[in-house]
Design a protein that fits this description.
The complex is a heterodimer of chains A (127) and B (285). Chain A has one domain (6-122): Transcription Regulator spoIIAA (2-Layer Sandwich), CATH 3.30.750. Chain A contains 4 helices and 5 strands, in the order ββαβαβαβα. Chain A has helices at 23-40, 57-72, 84-92, 106-122; strands spanning 6-9, 12-16, 44-48, 76-80, 101-103. In chain A, strand 3 (44-48), helix 2 and strand 4 form a beta-alpha-beta unit. The longest helix of chain A has 18 residues, at 23-40. Helix content of chain B is 65%, strand content 9%. Classes of the chains: A alpha/beta (127), B alpha/beta (285). Chain A binds chain B through residues 79-84, 86-88, 90-92, 96-97, 102-105, 108-109, and chain B through 186, 189-190, 193-194, 196-197, 200, 202, 224, 227-234.
Chain lengths: 127, 285
Amino acid sequence: MERIPILRMGRALLVTIQIDLQDQVALQLQDDLSAQIERTGAKGVLIDISALEIVDSFVGRMLASISGIAAVLDATTVVVGMQPAVAITLVELGLSLDGVRTALNVERGMQMLAADIADDDRTPSDD
Amino acid sequence: MKQDNAVFDQVLKADPEQFLKEWLSEVGRSGNASAGAGATGLADARELLGALAAAVAADADLKNLQDAAWARTRSVLAALSQSRAAQGASAGDTSYFVMALKRPLFIGLDKHLGSDPKAAFDAAWTGTVLIDQLAQFTASTYQRIREDVIARQQQELLELSTPVVKLWEGVLAVPMIGTLDSSRTQLVMETLLTRIVETGSELAIIDITGVPTVDTLVAQHLLKTVTAIRLMGADCIISGIRPQIAQTIVHLGIDLQGITTKASLADALQLAMKKAGYLVTRNKA
């Protein structure tokens, strides 16, 4: 089975989805990612879906749950590079991914994460 | 040749000029200029009569217009409907032009079969059926042509009304004009999202000054667009909300929470500049 690589960049994890996601692959990614966040103590997760052209409600829900899991493990998730067709599909499916942060491309997503991590370092969190 | 065809053949070929004269005077009796009693009407009538006579002579089935022998007649009628539709004649006038053919035909039948009422009656019935079919064909062709025109105009309107303009580096705007329905929202959404990707703009302004009314459906379409834009990683401001529309939105209980709204495009641009970190100053006091 194909596995999606998870790269570490500083204090953030980078996931680039280059293939159309099968349900099993998506579940595996969810497992791998939560293990990696725990192991590396990453503060941010960047998911690049610019190559993703087909989504279904399962993948949409998976993005939301990855973001939720990461939040529980104290990491911010940014989904970047969503294609217009994918965005329209998700909206039509009624998935607005309310808890997920988004950015136009990897560069801006990284800036966003860097700013978040810097913020986090300055103000020690209460929780 | 079939017996009916032989009778009709004689009638149509006996005195074509007299036939045309009676036909057009009957058309003129409708009292409507656009019915086609004039010179173009004469040319049309002559061509149709020629096609009709040829089909009858070729032993076409008088009760079935779909017969192959009627092909030329059908194309003449189609051309007639097309030119009438283009000139703006009404559907009634267009089909009346064909219906008026009954009068000269019946006069001709009366001349040929006047001595035999039974045969005259039968021939008249066949003629009525035939001409009704011709008129029906003309009317439905006319309607189809009009529908094509409407469909084309709708498409043009759709393309006309969705320009995405760049207001500033990283700021796009869509001035929406006209009623928002599903297909238009879809088109606006697609063009806007594609432009966002192309230009890497982080902010889109949807201006609804030109939208006459906002109901729950329109609001839902707007919400969808805003959500899609947010999913892509850009922000969205809705501007140009007129006082009446603001009242309607509140009265309908539409929830626009979480969406930035501004009264005018100028306000929206100001906010966009502020968000991007620009400062607008005046050089002269």
